[in-house]
Amino acid sequence: MSSVSIGDFQENARKAFDFLTSEFDFVELTVLDVKNRCSVIYVNKTIKVRILVEGIHWGSDTRVAFGHSKFDKFQDYDLLDLAKALEFDQFNIPENQATNQVEQLRIYADLLKEIGSDILIGDLVITKDIEKLREERVRVWNKENKM
Asked: Do 28 and 22 contact (CB within 8 A), yes or no?
């Protein structure tokens, strides 16, 4: 997979996720002190939801996360965990389809539109199921690593 510059990533992310601003009243959040400069952050101040779109793995992959924006610390629920919690068909998940980061952005945007409608209107009830998935992942990891 080829990587793109930070500016190109942000431009492509804005294009792919423009439905957040045009359809769901999100705005791009300008954060100067961000851990990953290769990111675009959206927030909806009415429903208090934040969406993070970031480039990871040195520009070869993309990650999308969501959570309440009303807390001091971003909750950071992964979009792929949402897909798993909803038992979404694994063959439609971006990591199984995309060959580069720009394709991943488009696929993740489509995935968020398809399975994230509740999230985009402020209903984060599913995060309880995602927490259970996280706990199970940690339990399995600890068992495999004899922690």
From this structure: no
| Sheet hosting strand 77-78, strand order edge to edge | 27-29, 39-44, 49-56, 61-68, 77-78
User: Model confidence over 110-134: pLDDT tens digits?
Assistant: 999 999 999 999 999 999 999 999 8
**Residues comprising the chain, all counted:** 147
Q: Which domain holds residue 61?
A: 6-144
Q: Does the residue 1 lie in any domain?
A: no
Identity of residue 48: K
Q: Tell whether 38 is covered by a domain.
A: yes
Predicted model pTM: 0.85
Q: Is residue 77 part of a domain?
A: yes
**Pairing label, strands 49-56, 61-68:** antiparallel
* Within-domain flag for 134: yes
7-74-58 Cα angle (round to 5): 35
Please name the residues in contact with 45: beta carbons below 8 A apart, sequence gap of 6 or more.
27, 69
Number of domain units in the chain? 1
